[in-house]
## 1
Amino acid sequence: MKLLIKNGYIIDVKTGIDGIYDLLVDDDRIAGISKDMDPEGCEIIDAGGKYVLPGLVDAHCHLRDPGFEYKEDIESGTRSAAMGGFTSVACMPNTNPVTDNESVVKYILNKAKREGYVNVYPIGAITKGLKGEELAEIGELKFAGAVAVSDDGNPVKSSSLMKKAMQYASMFDIAVISHCEDTDLAEDGVMNEGFTSTMLGLKGIPAAAEETMVARELILSEYLDIPIHIAHVSTALSVELIRNAKKRGVKVTCETCPHYFSLTDEACMGYDTNAKVNPPLRTDKDVQAVIEGIADDTIDIIATDHAPHHIDEKRVEFSLAASGMVGFETALPLVVTKLVRPGIITMRKLVEKMSLNPAKLLGISKGTLEPGSTADITIVDINAKFTVDPEKFESKSKNSPFAGFELYGQAWGTIVNGKPVVSENILL
């Protein structure tokens, strides 16, 4: 099958392409990029007025499969990812059973091959059962197909164990992704500690619960001279700690999520459980610091932390509600609306943070439109406006605090391995 994408504004950071070109896809590969292409026997996609980007890569999501398929499964999750413009997603290991062994990794890969709309890459656990007591067989996970290891949802509380995890993972050249949370400081908090939590009468989580663990990981990385990746950065001091560490040459990368630069803890007013997430939504000062961190490249990656939950797990008292929100179908529009259109970052920077850099972190051959590479492509119209309606999401779960938001930049087209799966904002 040949596809010819015509008249799109192509941005590819790796090759330096930045302008209006035609792009030819032959079977599952990028066959060429040039002006005024007109080969015979092609299906034509007119991308005039739109950006043509390397397929978006999400380095942090939850597909809930195996074990929690009532929230999400690989089929529904990847449908949602495709609608959001993602062509590759990396799913966290807090499944049931935990993704801490070869069998579960293989299960995810095999099911994704049969049912997935996009490429799926499992992330294995750092510790067995996510219990923080004993290292998982990281080498086994890597050879089975895991692209990183993380205990996301739980911190590795023992500094000694995290040190060993980083040393062991480095032997297999696999990234360690740290969920930075001092649970002793967080205690039983349910939202950010501050004015809003006091107004609502809810137990707060201090920013220090994140920042103390960020500092530990930076110290370990500098001491060992081994890379570390910090997940879902949400506070001003976390950004500053990472910025200073990078200046010292520490091998740290980090990510944030769209909700951390789009919302403050005031979204929890009215006890809206859709705004309950971990780490929690912070203050305006933190939001501005995260935005600055994205702009100056302190923050390398924008990930979704797509975390679906059944309505019964959200329609309860705030303190009892599950933490997390769905993110696949709002991530790109929030970046376009909050960062690109106001001129805070360029589309090139968007490609770096949502495609090239996450592919580098995961060690996968994605994030480029270089001829010969896999034809994973996202087409986006940054001027197309829409209103967020979670009931229309492809995800099984609808737990989004962005209902009713007017955003720009919905994915117009998603092509995975040379096959269109979304066209004109419609799942095929």
## 2
Amino acid sequence: MEHIYAALLLHKLGKEVNEENVKKVIAAAGQEVDETKIKSLIASLKGVDIAKELENASLVAASSSGGSEAPKEEKKVEAPKEEKKEAAAEGLSSLFG
């Protein structure tokens, strides 16, 4: 995971995301440098527009976190809990009544 963070940090700073720079970031953070993971990361990022991918990820996160649908679902979940509490109270009163 730290390799991905290193790539994101380099991108944010406007530096080139390459093996050498990722190694420097990982080493500066005090982590052990794993050459194979770094090579794999760089190969998988080849041809990827990181800025565009981050923008798409932000849009997906924003659309799933907001909206008027979430409170409706919460109300549906709360109703059964109230019913269970009432049923439990009735059960307890029958024990003592």
## 3
Amino acid sequence: MDQAWDPAAPDVMALPSGLLIRGRGLSQPLPAGPLPTFALYLLGDEPPGVPWQARWVRWPDFRLPADPADARNAFAAALERALTGRVEVACLGGNGRTGTALACIAILDGVPNDQAVAYVRERYRPHAVETANQQRYVRHFM
């Protein structure tokens, strides 16, 4: 397995299983340290190419995924990839869509739906999951 994320690094979130996933905002510079081995990008338009494997979920800012089934599959793929590599989940700012996706991934890893937003806000960013619709999406995810 490649070197894992540093669990003490900013924006690296530990899941209940111990797996680590980094969230970030693409509007910020790439953080120092190892590169992702897989990334899940949550944007309204297709992201630019990167030198690591990536998957794109069409997801307009402040909204919900255009295709919820595709998003769920992408979240499951990100969780599976975290078993053997460094997974990054990112949108433009790193809060709303990224926080929502991280909450859904946490649910797939065993966090109860009604606790997932608080889990991500405590372990990733306090302002993760920005809108009421995103919070509802997390509560009803699966």
## 4
Amino acid sequence: MVVSRRVLFTEKAEIEMARDALTPELVYEAILNAPAIFKVLRSRNPKTKKSERLYVIKGLTFDGLAIYTKGKILKKEGIDVFYVLISSKKSTDI
């Protein structure tokens, strides 16, 4: 989904990116360069109260900038449609 740019950014992720002067391209780079998904969290969506999985990905841009992201897969009719970035900011521990 990230390769094909099927990514949605929440307002929180956009605020964090702006604070850290990150562009969507830098975030995509870090996700694509990450060696693996760092952690999978079980969560409950505050709006729908449904259980969901959140994926924590820590990666580096080509220039070595460490970026932390947390997101979920948005499904429509059982098909993975978008990767929704809930959090996206500079990281200090990669």
